[in-house]
Amino acid sequence: SLANRLQATFDRLRGKGKVTEDDVNEMMREVRLALLEADVNFKVVKEFIAKVKERAIGQEVLKSLTPGQQVIKVVNDELTQLMGGEQSKIALASKAPTVVMMVGLQGAGKTTTTGKLAKYLQKQNRRPLLVACDIYRPAAIKQLQVLGEQLKVPVFSLGDQVSPVEIANQAIEQAKAEHNDYVLIDTAGRLHIDEKLMDELKDIRATVNPHEILLVVDAMTGQDAVNVAESFNQQLELSGVVLTKLDGDTRGGAALSVKAVTGKPIKFAGMGEKMDALEPFHPERMASRILGMGDVLTLIEKAQANVDQDKAKELERKMRKAEFTFEDFLEQMAQVRKLGPLDDLLGMLPGMNKVKGMKDLKVDEKALNRVEAIVKSMTKEEKQNPELLKTTSRKRRIAHGSGTSIQEVNRFIKQFEEMRKMMKQFTKMTDQAKKKKGKG
Ligand code: GDP
Ligand code: MG
């Protein structure tokens, strides 16, 4: 995979004191191959590599990082830049209603995303109106109505005998009358781009003058997504893109190229079929995901800014010697809770997305409380010596004491061991950074 490949090269570089031009060239060969394999557009890759090379070989040398980390940082920065830098927001018209037109190929996720956007807007106390303009696909109107019912959002439909242009037009009149501040128009798609589809979309656009035209693309379609985005943008002048199905096993190449090729920002990411599975698109997170590294740098920055320095030193010593205990774990949890939302932090841990089963781990506070209960049900000796927890009788006692199950206790201990291993790797990296600093 892209991640493994880069990882191997990064690891090789990590042991070095200085990055030479040859090193960078070697790394960039890997990055180029990996990006092409991830279906990133050829031209985009070429420009990207040139930019990274220039910066990596150039004068931007951060003393606190190892050479490998430096290159990672440059690659990460440039990837983020490529996907649009800052995340963008949905338009708000100065005079209501704000009209949003959803376009894209069949099956891309337009109707689903229309529902998700309605929910997203609802949460901001907006009053969206959904408009059923896909009159061709059987049951498309029904699909939107079902979503509307589920979300308690009104759906405007005139059946499948009235033209989409007319439906859209009347919908806006109704929105004005009913004081809906957003009108979300769900349009028809085809399996391929064709003139008839584009003409209809152009007609709707000319009639309703949308404030946003959002292209919905399926991230799993890779290079095709880029071609689709390019021609929709040429014909309709998009305002942004929604990338769906990012919850799947996609290689993310589409995310990289879409912005570069169209110049239009990716505004949202679809992360599942449910109505709440829509997230504002974070270029930085996507870059990290593509690199498969976890956001190491952000984590380091956050940790340095927030964790008490002395405690950090003591902790580091323990981590290095793998003396980290359950007691330390409890204390760390208290520290970590101070840092911010926990899923954010966990996502930043290097290797977290590689640990089996951890990828989709959503941290909920309840689960954490249970973990805390488990640790608190250990004896003082057990807390200080994780090795003691090999016997079933101890585990049973802890499960009983914490109101959990043996399975849960086992699972936690296993995760704890994984964490210890990761910490050891992590300290190896910071060691390298220190050595570098020492030499000046
Ligand atoms: P449309 O033809 O563009 O309107 O596409 P639909 O909204 O009907 O979606 C097509 C299929 O993709 C449906 O089965 C959706 O549940 C699914 N889908 C849409 N968005 C996502 C997403 O972000 N993740 C996943 N896993 N499935 C999605
Ligand atoms: Mg649809």
Notes on the protein architecture:
There is one protein chain. The chain is α/β, with parallel strands linked by helices and 440 residues long. The protein has 3 domains: 2-82, Four Helix Bundle (Hemerythrin (Met), subunit A) (Up-down Bundle); 98-290, P-loop containing nucleotide triphosphate hydrolases (Rossmann fold, 3-Layer(aba) Sandwich); 294-439, Signal recognition particle, SRP54 subunit, M-domain (434 Repressor (Amino-terminal Domain), Orthogonal Bundle), CATH 1.10.260.30. The chain is built from 19 helices and 8 strands. An 8-stranded mixed sheet has the order 3-2-4-1-5-6-7-8, sandwiched between helices. β7 (266-270) and β8 (278-280) form a beta hairpin. The chain is globular. The protein binds guanosine-5'-diphosphate and magnesium ion. Its main location: cytoplasm. Its EC number is 3.6.5.4.
CATH topology group of the largest domain:
Rossmann fold
Order of helices and strands: HHHHEHEHEHEHEHEHEEHHHHHHHHH
Question: Which strand order does the major sheet show?
Answer: 3-2-4-1-5-6-7-8
Measured by DSSP, the beta-strand proportion falls in 5-15%
Number of domains: 3
List low-pLDDT spans.
Answer: 59-64, 299-308, 350-361
Give the structural class: alpha/beta
| Assembly type | single chain
What are the SSEs and their pairings?
Blueprint: H1 2-14, H2 21-37, H3 42-57, H4 67-82, E1 98-103, H5 110-123, E2 128-132, H6 140-151, E3 155-156, H7 164-178, E4 182-186, H8 195-208, E5 212-218, H9 223-236, E6 240-244, H10 253-262, E7 266-270, E8 278-280, H11 283-291, H12 296-306, H13 309-320, H14 326-339, H15 342-348, H16 365-376, H17 380-384, H18 392-402, H19 406-439
Parallel strand pairs: 1-4, 1-5, 2-3, 2-4, 5-6, 6-7
Antiparallel strand pairs: 7-8
The structure holds guanosine-5'-diphosphate (GDP) and magnesium ion.
Guanosine-5'-diphosphate binds next to helix 5.
